[in-house]
Amino acid sequence: MARQLLGRITSLLPILIGVSVVVFLLVRLIPGDPVVALLGMEATPEAIAALRERYKLDDPWAVQYLAWMGSLLTGDLGRSVQSGREVLPLLMDALLPTLWLALAATVVSLAIAIPTGVIAATRRDTGADMLASLLSLFGLSMPSFWIGVLLILLFSIHLPILPASGYVAPSEDFGRFLLHLILPAITLGTALAAAIMRMTRATMLEVLEADYVRTARAKGLPRRKVIWKHAYRNAQIPIITLIGIQFGQVLGGVVITETIFSWPGIGKLTVDAIFARDYPVVQGAVLLTAGLFVLINLATDILYTIVDPRMRLS
Fold this sequence. Notes:
Layout: H1 2-27, H2 34-39, H3 45-54, H4 61-73, H5 87-122, H6 127-141, H7 144-158, H8 174-208, H9 211-218, H10 223-234, H11 236-252, H12 255-260, H13 266-275, H14 279-307
Helix pairs in contact: 1-14, 5-6, 5-8, 5-11, 5-14, 6-8, 7-8, 8-11, 9-10, 11-14, 13-14
């Protein structure tokens, strides 16, 4: 198991190297000069030249990339052109709010999707099934920014019971942290729940037709035990796969939600850095997101072996 896990981790290194090359090149294709964006149009040529020399922006791209990778191997992602702060602490400060939001959205989606998907599958072609399908279609069709705006209008303006935006660290005030987390978590979790519900329903319908489920029913086992212990347990692998993919996508794709709710996460930081042509921050943020996505996929593979011991990492 340990050797297989090490081999899997080693095979992921070329992916991260490829991502680093792509993001390095794409960032430099963004129109505009980061030095001019930082100093302004009225900056003197001497000031522009000094700052470009400081960040080695006049070196060939190959030299810049090798220097960046050399620093990266030592844990140094450089300094932000805009703020002057080291990139790694800047990313860590933004990553924690995004992780909180992603975890909360995943919990919301599972609380909605799993029971709804199981009910829809066990009551196929009934009113409950049709209602669940309608709700999932609504969740897949509605843009997250629209859902977020509706939630703000309802719960922050018409019924002023939840804050419309902002972030409070859980270490400062856990109660206020939860209040600020509810609306963005529901906004993200709604779209996630729709996809997971459809996957749960489809997988459960397939498993419910299996011979071992019919045998369990023939033995006279309680319906609840047949559904949750025999059917749902064997339907978890595709659902876990989808959850792992979605969690990784949430970490890298919460830009709209974080912007709507002024949530200081990695997505909002990346967008602000792109507008400011802050190369080190954009490169570090994309590479960090890609690394997390790769680790999540690896954790999903490991989770397979826990859910179903017959599966092994290959």
